[in-house]
Amino acid sequence: MALNPLSLSKKINIPFKDHNLLVNVFVHRSYLNEHKNFYLPSNERLEFLGDSVLSLITSVYLFRKFPYLEEGDYTEIKSAVVKTDSLATSAQKLGLSDYLLLSKGEEKSGGRNNKNILADSFEALIGAIFLDRSFEEAYRFVCVHLFEKRLDFIVKNKQYLPSKSKLQELIQAKFKMIPQYKVIEQTGPEHRRTFKVGVFFNGKKLGEGTAKSKKEAEEEAAKKAFENLDRL
């Protein structure tokens, strides 16, 4: 049995003028399959809006707080913090799963702990706060419940950098040289290639990755390389 979302309103200290809007945040599409005459639609439109609002909030926050970073850095940081795992974690901390309206089948299959469902509900909540209150209120909510100290830590420790960039930075700082990436194998038809790429330094293979593009395979190889830095 889902909890009344009004208790969440008190928890986050955001009084909603439109209570139906808050309820709508938690209506999963599966619920409507079993409740055809339910008075609200699924939360998908709110989630779509929340995703856009979150993107703008993140951009404004980074622009204000880290003016020294490049545009490319902003993009990488956004990807690092605004992702399913981060959103789902924030949703779990707020206990959003307790308010979800799910079908019996979705409930049985563990829908309340499904990361995608949780992340979607978090974005839908952002969208609802934006509509019911203001952009500023949504901005404050995201800063408190998503960014916290997490985003500052990511920036300070350059965790937003792709593994390929971090590996090059590490090797270049230590050896004044850079690693080399080589395609080891290509398989599949031309329009659906799969690439196996290795990353090498001083004639030693540090890691390899396989993906549908060379860029993704190189990134995967760089990730694996961090497990073998003792070979340097």
Characterise this structure.
The chain is mainly alpha-helical and 232 residues long. The protein is 56% helix and 10% strand. A hairpin with a 6-residue loop joins strand 1 and strand 2. Helix 6 packs across helix 8. The model has no long low-confidence stretch (mean pLDDT 90).
Q: Trace the largest sheet across and list its strands.
A: 1-2-3
Helix and strand content put the structural class at mainly alpha
The major beta sheet can be summarized as: 3 strands, antiparallel
Q: Taking Cα atoms only, what radius of gyration do you get, to the nearest Å?
A: 22 Å
Classify the helix fraction into a percent range. Answer: 55-70%
Query: How many distinct beta strands?
Result: 3
Which outline best applies? elongated
Runs in which pLDDT lies below 50 for 5 or more consecutive residues are none
Task: Determine the mean pLDDT.
Answer: 90
| Alpha carbon gap, first and last residue | 56 Å
Describe the oligomeric state of these chains in a short phrase.
single chain
What is the H-and-E element order? Answer: HHHHHHHHHHHEEEH
**How large a portion of the residues is in β-strands, by DSSP E?**
5-15%
Helix segment tally: 12
